[in-house]
Amino acid sequence: MEILITQPAKAELDKLLKNSEHKYIRIVTKRESIFEKGRLDFTFDKKEDDDLLFKAEGYEIVINVKLAAQLQNLTISYGGLLSRDKFTVETDFGLFKY
Prior knowledge:
alpha/beta; Hypothetical Protein Aq_1857, Chain: A; 7 strands; about 100 residues; 3-stranded mixed sheet
């Protein structure tokens, strides 16, 4: 799996990880209402038995094996035109199904 972490995301991740008790970035699905499509997000967590571990640009990223099977390329970014103070986790269009 290809994982890209943008420079602004790295700077913000470093700040957050410095104060976290966990060292892994966990990619998760998030759905805020029944009317919304599922999307990807992340949290800081520990590694579980049914996780795959990926190393990207000095970060350790864990993804549940079932979710990882649906993803090929992953981008973690921070900021931008529509989300100035937010992280965004994106994957190849059409590959992720909630």
